[in-house]
Write a structure and sequence with these properties.
Blueprint lengths: L5 E6 L2 E6 L10 H14 L6 E5 L4 E3 L4 H5 L3 H19 L5 E5 L2 E3 L1 H8 L2 E5 L3 E3 L13 H9 L1 H10 L2 E3 H6 L5 E3 L1 H16 L3 H14 L4 H16 L2 H11 L10
Parallel strand pairs: 2-3, 3-5, 4-6, 5-7, 6-8, 7-10
Antiparallel strand pairs: 1-2, 8-9
Helix pairs in contact: 1-3, 4-5, 5-6, 9-10
The chain binds hexanoyl-coenzyme A (HXC).
Length: 258
């Protein structure tokens, strides 16, 4: 498929997906969403060990496309929200970690997209917010749930009820982003983290992601039992044999992802 609104570059086993709809500040219309769905569910293969999702200098994503939403009936708006939610779930459940490298605005659906990623790294110029209440609507791509789970209910309620925008430093302070860099450093630092992740045992990293994602929706006893199941799965891998053997032989492990 030829993408009109994004590019996907693969170097070794790291993919960089860049949203490219700068005239509308990368606003998510149905076409952008369907390209995002395609790239994560059909284009990227099991060999990929980490993905960086980024935008353009001014905007990561300024939200769902307000002009497109304007023409929707309530039923269509529900379908739009659901289809976006399912696409964001495919990013959340992608086999390898996804790092959101947030350059500029991450508002509404843009903040929700960053929240569906595993890790968020921001440029000093990034701005975050859920401004939906300014438009008479609510977050509909998972924001009420993922923001609450990420920063806790107190801060999530404040951001969602006031519609206030916060800068990168405040986003860092409340745990919405992991680190803040200059705009020039942002991609290089994201690639550095992606390379570190990609150098580890891929199946183990993938199982860690599964344990965190699925365990966070279970009660603690069930979640740790699930962790034990996945631990055993990692233990039966070739990479476990290689990793432990390499430690004993004082050499660098070479992982194959099996
Ligand atoms: C459609 C958008 C857009 C959006 C910006 N644009 N955001 N188009 N949907 N979400 C367009 C503008 O209309 C304009 O195009 C161009 O991008 C540049 O934007 P400006 O407003 O001129 O830039 P600036 O003055 O710098 O302001 C930047 C901004 C502002 C603060 C980010 O654009 C803004 O407030 N955008 C809306 C943010 C928002 O409310 N997001 C939440 C959407 S609701 P033209 O052609 O007019 O010049 C949402 C719901 C998710 O996300 C759940 C759905 C189920």
């Amino acid at each position: 498929m030829e993408y009109k609104n994004l590019t996907c570059e693969i170097q070794e086993n790291i993919a960089t997906v860049t949203l490219q709809r700068p005239k509308a500040l990368n606003a998510l219309n149905q076409e952008v969403l369907s390209e995002l769905r395609h790239v994560f569910t059909e284009h990227l293969t099991r060999e990929i060990r980490c993905v960086i999702l980024t935008g353009s200098e001014k905007a990561f994503v300024a939200g769902a496309d307000i002009k497109e939403m304007d023409g929707m009936t309530p039923l269509q708006s529900r379908q739009f929200a659901r289809s976006g939610q399912l696409i964001f779930e495919s990013i959340e459940n992608f086999h390898a970690p996804v790092i959101a490298a947030v350059n500029g605005y991450a508002l509404g659906g843009g903040c929700e997209l960053a929240l569906a990623c595993d890790i968020r790294i921001a440029s000093e110029k990034a701005k975050f917010g859920q401004p939906e209440v300014n438009l008479g609507i609510i977050p509909g791509f998972g924001g009420t749930q993922r923001l609450t789970r990420t920063v806790g209910p107190g801060k999530a309620r404040e951001l969602i009820y006031t519609g206030n925008t916060i800068d990168a430093q405040e986003a860092h302070r409340i745990g919405l982003v992991n680190a803040v860099y200059t705009p020039e450093e942002l991609l290089a630092k994201s690639v550095e983290m992606a390379k570190t992740i990609a150098s580890k045992a891929p199946l183990a990293v993938s199982l860690c992601k599964k344990a965190i994602n699925m365990g966070s929706n279970m009660d603690i006893s069930r979640a740790i039992e699930f962790e034990a199941d996945l631990f055993a799965e990692s233990f039966s891998s070739e990479d476990r044999k290689e990793g432990i053997e390499a430690f004993v032989q004082k050499r660098k492990a070479s992982f194959v992802g099996k």
